[in-house]
Amino acid sequence: MDIHFFKESPFTTIISFHKLIESFEQIALSDVDYRSNYAKAILKQIETIPELRTGIQDYSIIKENEALIKNILADLFPTALTQNEIKAVTIPFQNISFNYTERFKKILKNAGDEFYMEIRDFDEHQFYINNCCLILSNYYKQHIDFNKPFFYDIPNEEGIEKHYRILYNADFMEIIPTENAVELSQEDIDQLIDNYNDIELWKSKFPKGSWVLRGFGIVSLFDATTESAISTLKSNLLKPSTSKLDSNDILENIFKSIFGLPNLKVGFIIYNPEEEKFIRPIKFDEQITSFLLHSDQEVDCKNAFFGCSFENLLDKNEPFVISNVKKFIEESPNKNLGEHLLRQGIQSCVFAPVTKDGHLLGVIELVSENPRDLNSVNATKLELVLPYLTDTIDRYNTDMQHQVEAIIQREYTTIHPSVYWKFKKESQNYFQNNNPTKDYIFKEIVFKNVFPLYGQIDIKGSSEHRNDTVRKDLKNQLNTILEIFANQQPNTSLMLLEQRKFELESLRDDLDQPLKADTEQYIQRYIEDEIHPILKNTKDTAINKKLEEEYFESLDEKTGMFYQERKKFDNAMSIINKKLASVLDKKQLEAQQIYPHYYERFKTDGVEHNLYIGASIAPTKPFDIMYLHNLRLWQLQTLCEMELEHHQLKESLPYELDVTSLILVFSSALSIRFRMDEKRFDVDGTYNARYEVVKKRIDKAHIKGSKERITEKEKITIVYSQNSEEAEYLKYIKYLQHKKILEPAIEQFEVEDLQGVSGLRAIRVKVINNITNANAKKITYQDLLDELN
């Protein structure tokens, strides 16, 4: 007999068989001799133990009189059904049980001595209130549906958890109030019904031990393992994120319960129809495994590994079943698949397609280490769970698509978060007003009355540096070829070699002149078409052969040319751009706190940025011109930081490059419009186009009346047109000079007239770059390359 109590209950529980005893007394008076004699014999035994009628609170009495109690309950527990029914005497919701049927005894025995039978997800709070609801239902005759499904989870002899639905019969029980019971009005009852979670309220209306529960109940169990396991699976799969499947163990335990196989293992792969590949999602590497892919991340579903074995699965969307892998290897032409499974200890398996609307989404893999554990018969059980798997995988694919679109938007388009709300609003209008019979005309995305800020930090003389590195690489390559030709053995092709040497020397001499647009391509074609065939087909000495091998090893894989100097230049450019862009992006996050504004950045031969600020971009926030001034000061400080970042990089760069910085001040408000054809923002209107013209030409402009560029290395040039702008920026410069960020000297000059634009002026000031940090770690070129890659 199992006896386990919760600490508190509104009931004093008294086990009594008085209702059955009363029925025996009626039978004893009947005219049917065998029934009457049987009842009289039972009643005679009961006389010696009056507690069976009056009530038992000392549960040892039940233990001592098991045989008699079994006879008393014989009509309710027929011997003919004891091997089939799972039934016992109990008190509802309490773990008091005895007089088990033989099948119930066997189930408990297989569970083990340490198993403790308790109702799933049932705590003291629910226990107390359910007992109170029992009183409301039976004594106060309230129609309260409080009996949610209850389950016992009991492992079998193989350790597989079986799930049993609990049904209570309370026909032989009565509920009696004591003097401590609180008489409830309908208002009290309504208050209780509306406050299920207020345990103190329930205890005040049903004090502990204020009612008597007299009699006994009967609990009947039926095996609901499959239904319960499917319900648990559905609950897990319908969670907001499939990442909440903590491990593959959860799925495996559910499928073990459904199939009744202790050695069952579960895997899964996703099908990519665009590439016709099976994929094991990296996101779930530690949660969901795959036995088909095993160590591979993806496999072409039409390759030799799967062969024709998966024809049904791919083309007919039918499960592929192998009940005996060893026999499959002997009989099937696709031995690779069988051997792949056998190496993992798999002896039987089912691979079932997960489909929706006739399209394959993925494959669920069930495998076992025992032959015939999985077969075509029990594979039909998958029909019970595949609908839930289908919805989950379909939701996963949809979520993945949304995330991919979000990444594309974040990484590859110009829709900045500050203006996303307007695109979203227009998209919602399209979605809500979309009519299949009428084309929807998208409204243009325009932001009016916004103030622009433009800045750039540019690689000084990048075109000249690039041409120099090209010239050096070409000269090195030509010299190397000439050295190989100089060491060639005299042979029949000597005249041809002399001619080629002359041509190579002529090309080398031409490189001392300014590079023409087609010089690099001409020399590359000449070397590939005329020189390389000679080097590859000429027999030569061991020394020259080594020179040729070293030459070909020095060629770049993509261009087939020497790329050493250009690689240093390109790496230096990439490192500078990446470092400076990261500084700008990080500082931009802080700038958004000043006032939400549109921001875009471009990497060219340096880093450019556009900012637009105004009330139309953030209509829910009041705009003041103060925010524009704050953003201008932020921009100037950020360019100073980017200059300092470059200065710290210079010593570590593979190719020394200087930078120049420029700010263009424009105080007139303008409009920006999203160009649907180019998928980017641009200024709107003829007058505003003047701003774009200045942006494109200003960095190459000269100081008026001279040949000196307005930009200079390690200095920031601020171009403006109005006196108010000059006064504003001089205040910013004075502040930064006070902070020891800018040097004291200030240059002011006029800018040469540009096409259609005149009257521009400029301020130029040098950034203090002798700021050192004794604790700073020295950056090496390798550190930069590692970060770049």
Automatic annotation (TrEMBL):
Q: Which domain of life is it from?
A: Bacteria
- Sorted alphabetically, which Pfam families does this protein's record hold? GAF
Q: What is this protein called?
A: GAF domain-containing protein
**Locate the GAF domain: which residues?**
312-373
SUPFAM superfamilies attached here? GAF domain-like
